[in-house]
Design brief:
Number of domains: 2
InterPro entries: ArsR-like_HTH, HTH_ArsR_DNA-bd_dom, HTH_MetalResp_TranReg, WH-like_DNA-bd_sf, WH_DNA-bd_sf
Strand content: 5-15%
Coiled coil: 124-161
Number of strands: 5
Order of helices and strands: HHEHHEEEEHHHH
Strand order of the largest sheet: 1-3-2
Distance between the termini: 24 Å
GO molecular function: DNA binding; DNA-binding transcription factor activity
Keywords: Coiled coil, DNA-binding, Transcription, Transcription regulation
Structural class: alpha+beta
Pfam families: HTH_5 (PF01022)
Length: 201
């Protein structure tokens, strides 16, 4: 598990910080508003906000008020998707962050719909239908990913069981087998196999 991911999990491990993030998905909040919503003192809220801001999850801006001092409000800074991985052979996590959108056919279709000069009722209906199509496609891809990951776990478990059996019988052979497949295996998995069965020989 990478250092950045470990820190992020530590940050998200606190219930109050998770509640703050949930509130900020609705709209930007001032400290006093968060304090009232959470039933937590402003000093404690400020400390949680500092930790979230240092982690790059939220950002703050100053808003000028006609009467009174300028006020700082907080909002979500970036979107991300975090997955926890727990298998018979692995415990870890993966983080996905938004990237620059690739100019795919779906992207071009979205741009055309957004730039459309159709009457607003027709335009909104077309956008809603397209969004529904995207949602269905994403669900299909997630299900396909889940099925592939199950097969991947099956193969990884079998490889590790074979490596374990060989290492118990003949340590020289297990080194030779690993050498033959090291460059073929996915890099992260090869590293894990090496740590488990090779480095302590």
């Amino acid at each position: 598990m990478g250092e950045e991911l470990s820190k992020l999990l530590d940050v998200l491990g606190n219930e109050t910080r998770r509640r703050i993030l949930f509130l900020l998905t609705k709209r930007p909040y001032f400290v006093s508003e968060l304090s009232q919503e959470l039933g937590v003192g402003q000093k404690a809220v400020l400390e949680h906000l500092r930790i979230l801001e240092e982690a790059g999850l939220i950002e703050s801006r100053i808003e000028k008020i006609p009467r009174g001092r300028p006020r700082k409000y907080y909002m979500i800074k970036r979107g991300l998707r975090l997955e926890i991985l727990l298998t018979p052979t692995l415990f870890g996590s993966e983080m996905y962050e938004p990237r620059e959108i690739r100019k795919s056919p779906e992207y071009e279709q979205a741009r055309e719909l957004i730039k459309s000069v159709e009457p607003i009722d027709i335009k909104m209906k077309e956008l809603a239908e397209f969004l529904h199509e995207l949602d269905d496609r994403i669900k299909e891809l997630i299900e396909e990913k889940r099925e592939l990951e199950e097969v991947k776990i099956l193969v990884e478990t079998y490889i590790e069981n074979v490596m374990r059996r060989i290492s118990e019988e003949n340590k020289e052979i297990v080194k030779k087998v690993f050498k033959d497949i090291e460059e073929i295996l996915p890099p992260e998995y090869a590293k894990r196999i090496k740590e488990k069965f090779i480095e302590n020989i």
